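U., I forgot to send this yesterday:
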Amino acid sequence: MKIVLASNNQGKLAELQAMFAPLQMTLVRQSELGIGEAPEPYRTFVENALTKARHASAASGLPALADDAGLCVDAFGGMPGVDTAYYATQFGYEKSDANNVRALLEQMRNVDQRRAALVSTLVALRSADDPEPLIAVGRAVGEIVREPRGENGFGFDPVMFIPKFGKTFAELPSEVKNAHSHRGQAAQAMVALMRERWL
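Result:
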């Protein structure tokens, strides 16, 4: 089965393709089909993911999978949340993973309460009008370290320390990270939902 991934993020595609491999599903980035990004006007991950999935499915005629994910920092009342991708732009930096990490570390320089969660909400639709979207949420709780560590992963992986492993996500081998990350947890739940309801 071919599914359009409502994202242009190469890192997300690689992670999700590996996680959905057991279902013999091929994920195709929407940009490869000439589909632009959907607006994300909502303040929750689930509403934005649903909007992105409906947009990609309507434009492609294919089933769609969308992920809306972000970093929720306790000391910031859960922010940056749905604004995670553009976090650095609030502080005058260009949009990039490296600048997001830089801005976060600058904002947390004098903050001792460093607990945070990476959250991923996956939504899958059989068609743009599917009245019963599949929704799966994953949450990885850790602490923001004071400087980046590790070379694997993307986004906030180099600063997200997971106490259970004593390492940041970027210091873990891909297969360990994928099994325990927010996106990994959401993907495992989504694979189970698809097996139960779609296959």
